[in-house]
Specification:
By secondary structure, this protein is an alpha+beta fold. The protein has nine helices and 17 strands. Strands 1, 2, 3, 4, 5, 6, 7 and 8 form an eight-stranded mixed sheet that branches. Pathway: Sulfur metabolism; glutathione biosynthesis; glutathione from L-cysteine and L-glutamate: step 2/2.
């Protein structure tokens, strides 16, 4: 099977290929004989029923700084000219992101979009996870200081974070005797119009924040991300370090419950975050971590993702 694949992503020039999941997916696609195009979300347009992109044909190689060759930009019809669109631009999950999902949804009956754009729009990381509250730490979503004070008094230590943040940005740990809670909530209210998330602090975060990857609903590997000294954030983008790990029975239970729903929604490539057996996020917009997982486990997660994509393309006839 030879597919035409358009990758909607951040500029190819700026990525660090050694740990980049999108680049790993592109390398795997190319190795299977698929043709690659690359464009940014700002290159999308709609005209008389057609969704188009100003895109570049590209070839990729594992040589940082010389990792791709691009042809001249051309206008491609994503509904008629392309078999698969990978929606891989990084968050923030803002109106620009949502607009891209609306445009791509218009071609989803003709072109396989990964992940499914309507499902991505309806499953923001820190809200979709509420469907599985039985696995979560105590969680409050609010803009009200009095509610946060009561939650803080009940749980002693809490974490406050924006609903639509990413890569560990603006995540605050508030201790038992912290006197900055009111100022912090005031700041959140001024910076973001949306409510924010407050969770009971899990002290075991010092032992790691596990990223588990599911491909078409099936767990395929995991890494344990340890925060650097003096930090609570384990995100690799925030300085966390990846370590090999295995899934616990509790984590397998979480995957067994989530997996069928992820597959049914067309969420082919998903990363979930688990701390001490507690589910904290379901990442569907632009999940990462597969390069580190494969490094430790000797697996081929990009290959498994392409197997799933090819199965779905074949099933469409």
């Amino acid at each position: 099977m030879s597919l035409k694949v358009a990758v909607q992503m951040d500029p190819l020039e700026t990525i660090k290929i050694a740990g980049d999941s999108t680049f790993a997916l592109m390398m795997a696609a190319q190795s299977r004989g698929h043709t690659l195009y690359e464009y940014g979300p700002g290159d999308l347009s709609y005209d008389r029923g057609q969704v188009r992109a100003l895109a570049r044909p590209v070839t990729v190689r594992a040589a940082q700084g010389d990792h791709f060759t691009a042809g001249e930009q051309e206008v491609i019809d994503l509904g008629d000219d392309i078999d698969v669109v990978l929606m891989r631009q990084d968050p923030p999950f803002d109106l620009a992101y949502i607009t891209a999902t609306h445009l791509l949804e218009r071609i989803a009956q003709r072109t396989l979009v990964v992940n499914d754009p309507a499902a991505v729009r309806n499953a923001p990381e820190k809200l979709f996870v509420l469907d599985y509250a039985q696995f979560m730490p105590a969680t409050l979503i609010t803009r009200k200081l009095d509610e946060v004070r009561a939650f803080h008094a009940e749980h002693g230590e809490i974490v406050v974070k924006p609903l639509y943040g990413n890569a560990g940005s603006a995540v605050f740990h508030v201790g038992r005797a912290d006197k900055n809670l009111a100022a912090l909530i005031e700041l959140f209210g001024e910076v973001w119009r949306e409510p924010f998330m407050v969770q009971a602090f899990l002290p075991d975060v010092s032992e790691g924040d596990k990223r588990i990857v599911l491909v078409d609903g099936v767990p395929t590997g995991a890494i344990n991300r340890l925060p650097k000294s003096g930090e609570i954030r384990s995100n690799l983008a925030a300085g966390g370090a990846a370590h090999a790990t295995e899934l616990t029975p509790k984590e397998r239970e979480i995957c067994d419950v989530l997996g069928p729903e992820l597959a049914a929604r067309g969420l082919i490539f998903v990363g979930i975050d688990v701390i001490a057996g507690h589910l904290t996020e379901i990442n569907v917009t632009s999940p990462t971590g597969i390069v580190a997982i494969d490094k430790f486990n000797g697996t081929d997660t990009p290959g498994l993702i392409w197997d799933a994509i090819e199965r779905r393309v074949s099933a469409r006839g």
